[in-house]
Amino acid sequence: MPVNKIVTIGSLFLALGVGLGAFGAHGLKAILIENNRVHTFETAVLYHFVHGIGLLIVGVADIKKKKAIALSFTIGIFCFSGSLYTLAITNVNWLGAVAPVGGAAFILGWTLLGWQAYKT
Questions:
Q1: Which residues, other chains included, contact 102 with Cβ-Cβ below 8 Å and sequence gap of 6+?
Q2: What is the mean pLDDT of the chain?
Q3: How many helices (DSSP H) and strands (DSSP E) are in the chain?
Q4: Phi, psi of 37 (to 5 degrees)
Q5: Based on CB atoms within 10 Å of each CB, which residue in 27, 74, 85, 107 is the most buried?
Q6: C-alpha to C-alpha distance for 15 and 7, rounded to whole angstroms
Q7: pLDDT tens, 18-73?
């Protein structure tokens, strides 16, 4: 995957993270408090941001397997952060079961990144 595509994806995820974080802090505040899910939403935003920055790092790093790493982070953001965002807003508890899939994708992405950096 070309560097500019990975950096573009990472930048878009970061912009979305800012928007969702602000929306959660203001527009969704009452719902998150009512559902007792403020911390859940904040965790989703934190992991969203960390892995958006991870995508930027992958985009500019001189390593192989960029596509696999970027895909792992992207899947992680959708599954982990996405399920927590939805859980926080809807309070549908079974959605929390999707988060570990995203967490595994994050772990895979960081492991691949570390391995590729080590091999370089």
A1: 47, 75, 76, 77, 78, 79, 80, 81, 82, 83
A2: 95
A3: 6, 0
A4: -125, 20
A5: 85
A6: 12
A7: 999 999 999 999 999 999 999 999 999 999 999 999 999 999 999 999 999 999 99
- 30 token code pair: 């009452």
Let me know: does 17 contact 80? Beta carbons within 8 Å.
no
Is 102 a residue whose pLDDT tops 80? yes
Cα–Cα distance, 39 to 2 (Å, whole number): 36
Record the pTM.
0.94
Please state, in angstroms and rounded to a whole number, the distance separating the CA atoms of residues 63 and 54.
Answer: 14
- The dihedral of CA 35, 36, 37, 38: what is its sign? positive
